[in-house]
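Encode chain A's predicted structure.
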Amino acid sequence: MRGMSSRIALLAAELPAEAPDAFRLLPAGLFRSRDGRPEGLPGWRLDAEDMARLVAEAEARATDYPIDYEHQILESRRNGQPAPAAGWFRRLEARADGLWAVGVRWTKRARQMIAAGEYRYISPVFTYDDDGRVRKLLMAAITNDPGLDGLTDLSPLTFSMEDDMSESLAALKAALGAGDDADVALLATDRIKSLSEEVAALKAEAERLKAAAAESVPMTQLAALQAEVASLKAEAEARERAALLEQGLSDGRILPAQRDYWTAQPLAALKQWLTVAQPIAALTATQSGGKAAGAKAAALTDEQAHLCRVAGWSESVFSSKE
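Encoded structure for chain A:
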């Protein structure tokens, strides 16, 4: 058997007056062009196994097969002109008489041109190996240049894209890490399958994370809990501050005039002040020192005198009448 390097052929099949939603792309069995192509071979060959493989490749594709005008997708590299689509198809079907494109979607312009008889033939583009076996379907075009006698629906055109596509095929093989004799179609199918599995795994992980997020505490509930904790903390701090103020006022470490000041200060500062401040004896005992009313006032202590100077009080605060 000869090598498996791919060659490319283009065929043409007559279209009905109305743009069909299905048409035959390739005939089953052995077929060839009227100008003698494929050279050195009995003909191109398409059997049931080939059709099954092509159908599977179509199902694995993520994009549609294009239908253009006069193979302009292939020609645009040479002429620099746009290559608008005449239609698209995704599915292939293996039938007794060959390989069919089904579910074809035509553009409005293409439908009008086919209905007007401006285009009459469909021309598929496919690769084939050194034995003439069809390997891969590439695309299709509408054309007016049928070239095969003896078939009612298909005819090869009189040119080959082997040389024009060799560079692209080589680049594709390099991207797939394939050797010169590798089956590019099968390798591409395996790569698509691998990528599809990776996408499925990523989708599963996204669903898992979504479910986990749904089971966690909602943000609104979390905010409510945080607010409740803050409220309880503030209430506990207020109670502690009130108790400390009451204690400081009772023993003179905080004077009545200072109550509002220490109410506004941080609780830590209040605690620190009560730690270092000294109780005022005059406020923790009777001002008469236990003496009867009317007794002569005793001289102020150094501590009392200092407090009067700092606070601007009268010494009478700490004195009593005889």
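The two ends are 137 Å apart (CA to CA).
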